[in-house]
Write a structure and sequence with these properties.
binds guanosine-5'-triphosphate, elongated, 3 domains, TIM Barrel, eight-stranded mixed barrel, Alpha-Beta Plaits, alpha/beta
């Protein structure tokens, strides 16, 4: 309805907007009623110059109230001032009519009710100020003129008493409105205070009183895309943990507060925030780009590394600072912040104190941080999809099993990240299980388990989740798939981390009907004792062995020995990385039971498999 009107009724702006709407309604409705009344008088042929003057004055004031509300200028002052002007005009014209004996039957009810109607929304101070005027005007009007039109003949004392009564009545009404206005103001003030407190708490870091991450980004978002000379500095204190450990959290808090104070004093900043822990960010603006980025970063860094004076003497606090200056290659604010973060990490790892973002040196780090930033959202929005790679029997080359893999599609990044890029990050962020449930559910829906098994990769961290097997069984049951159709593929890392617990979990999975495969055998330490320690059904021989076996005889013998070892341990021998007919012939001759690799089939999104494949 209004230009720039905000609908946020839960904010200070919301209160203002409500007043604007009220003022606009009062102005427009009052104007319309005024116009209708005037037209009626015109139709009845009773128009006098005084009536035209009165109605014209009202129209001007009401129109002004509506206009100011519409344009959002001096809304409150014009509304309240306008209503007082209407009130005064009403009384002046009422006396003028009476004096000129132009009063009518309705005059008395009008002087009783119109002032009340006009003034009821005024603030309490104005209402209280008008009470003496109202009392006096009512008393004079009624005692001098009021009863004449009603055809009532009262004695002077009767008329005096009646006018005092009406004047008292309207004064009490004004008083009641004033009390209501006080209550209204009180509620509004409390509401505004409450909202102010809430907003303050939600946007400010309680320890340093700097903005928090969300408020920092919100503030900068208002300036995005920025003009030239807009830069973000990302800071992380060095060795803050040992300081905390040695001198206690109180000292740590003091240091954080002092760093915040120094940041507050940095000139030409748009916003300063504590992003969390010992990380801070400053948005610097240098519109004319007077200083090169290196100079600005070095200057900011030197402000921060000055010794801090504490009760236990001076403390020198190291700071790593990354500086990224906006240019058009930054598509979003978060990308610029991550660029500053990447530069900061380089400064930290090289112990250089500060570094400015360099597209060539830091682009890999920026890509990693983009993945870190986007991965969770991708998982939730269904962009992490199930892919499968076939595993075939060497006896008839029938595909009897698929290995479940994850693929990131439609990432919105320059290039969709490959599993080698995002799986380690998912592991670091504790998202591997969530990723497994998402991709597994998709695969369980699509695959035909009468013809195929499904192999699932499980990391030691996933196994150590207390409810892993239960959750897995639950998911299988929900899709009516028997645990007997599932193979869990684990790497030798399960032996190195909490072996007893991992063996217990694998035994439970086996008891439920699942098979266990040791993945990538031959790529790591491949200790033979590990084969005895784990409850296994299958050995998957790492692809490096078949590659080397093609090149020299010694490696071919190692591959042969690995296959023989699996057979002698009564495990299924599956060779990974079979990429050619030659390699296939070689492993078939060695007695492998199963093969996997590009020659059998590349990984493909499960949704793209045709009916006969699944
Ligand atoms: N005193 C205090 N410590 C905090 C607060 N928030 C986080 N920390 C601690 O800050 C430390 C930050 O961790 P890191 O940045 O990894 O520690 P660091 O020693 O600075 O490591 P580097 O950055 O690699 O030098 C952790 O030990 C947190 O417990 C806080 O509000 N007050």
């Amino acid at each position: 309805m209004f230009p720039n009107a905000t609908a946020d009724k839960d904010s200070l702006q919301g209160l203002h907007d409500r007043l604007r709407v009220s003022a606009f309604s009062i102005g427009v409705m009052g104007f319309v009623v005024n116009a209708i009344a005037y037209l009626s008088i015109v139709l009845l042929g009773d128009v006098t110059a005084l009536i035209t003057l009165e109605v014209g004055s009202y129209a001007v004031v009401l129109g002004l109230i509506a206009f100011c509300a519409y344009r959002d200028v001096y809304v409150q002052r014009v509304l309240f001032g306008g209503l007082v002007a209407i009130y005064i005009t009403f009384w002046l014209t009422a006396f003028a009519y009476a004096y000129r004996q132009e009063t009518m039957l309705l005059s008395l009810p009008l002087v009783v009710f119109v002032p009340l109607l006009v003034t009821m929304v005024l603030p309490h101070k104005l209402l209280l100020g008008l009470i003496p005027f109202q009392f006096f005007a009512m008393h004079v009007y009624v005692s001098e003129f009021g009863l004449a039109d009603m055809g009532v003949t009262w004695s002077d004392p009767q008329q005096f008493a009646f006018s005092l009564g009406l004047a008292g009545f309207s004064s009490v009404c004004f008083l009641a409105f004033a009390v209501l206005a006080i209550a209204r103001t009180d509620t509004d003030v409390k509401l505004v205070d409450l909202m102010g407190d809430k907003e303050h708490m939600a946007s400010v870091d309680s320890l340093t009183e700097l903005l928090n991450r969300r408020a920092f980004l919100n503030r900068l978002e208002d300036h995005w895309p920025p003009s030239q000379g807009f830069a973000i500095a990302f800071l992380d204190l060095d060795h803050f943990k040992p300081l905390n450990d040695q001198y206690g959290h109180q000292m740590g808090d003091y240091v954080l507060g002092e760093v915040a104070n120094r940041l507050r004093e940095v000139p030409s900043t748009l916003a300063t925030a504590r992003l969390g822990g010992d990380e801070f960010a400053v948005c610097c603006i240098d519109p004319g780009r007077q200083k090169p980025a290196e100079e600005a970063a070095a200057e900011l860094h030197s402000r921060l590394v000055v010794d801090l004076q504490t009760d236990i003497g001076p403390i020198s606090m190291g700071v790593s600072l990354g500086f990224a200056v906006y240019d058009e290659s930054y598509e979003s604010l978060s990308m610029l912040l991550r660029a500053a973060d990447a530069a900061m990490r380089r400064a930290k790892s090289t112990k250089s104190g500060w570094a400015t973002f360099d597209h060539e040196i830091d682009s890999a780090a920026l890509a990693t941080s983009s993945i870190e930033f986007e991965l969770k959202a991708a998982l939730r929005s269904g962009n992490i999809r199930a892919a499968v790679q076939p595993i075939a029997l060497t006896s008839d080359m029938n595909v009897t099993e698929y290995e479940l893999l994850a693929r990131w599609v439609n990432s919105g990044l320059e290039q969709d990240p490959g599993p080698a890029q995002f799986i380690p990050i998912a592991e670091k962020q504790g998202l591997l299980n969530e990723m497994l449930w998402v991709t597994l559910s998709e695969a369980l829906d699509e695959l035909n388990f009468e013809r195929h098994r499904l192999a699932i990769n499980v990391s030691p961290a996933q196994l150590s989740a207390s409810d892993f097997v239960d959750k897995l069984l639950e998911v299988l049951e929900a899709h009516a798939v028997s645990p007997g159709s599932i193979t869990l593929e684990v790497t030798e890392e399960v032996v190195f981390r909490n072996l007893d617990r991992n063996v217990e979990v694998l035994n439970r999975a086996r008891e439920a009907g699942m098979a266990i495969a040791l993945d990538d055998f031959g790529s790591g330490y491949s200790s033979l004792s590990m084969l005895g320690a784990l409850p296994l059904d299958k050995l998957k021989i790492d692809q490096t062995l078949i590659r080397k076996a093609q090149e020299d005889r010694r490696s071919a013998n190692i591959l042969n020995a690995a296959i023989t070892l699996a057979q002698q341990l009564e495990l299924i021998a599956c060779v990974e990385g079979v990429e050619t007919q030659e390699a296939l012939d070689q492993v078939v001759a060695m007695g492998a039971d199963q093969v996997q690799g590009y020659f059998i089939g590349r990984p493909s999104l499960i949704q793209t498999l045709t009916g006969s494949d699944v």
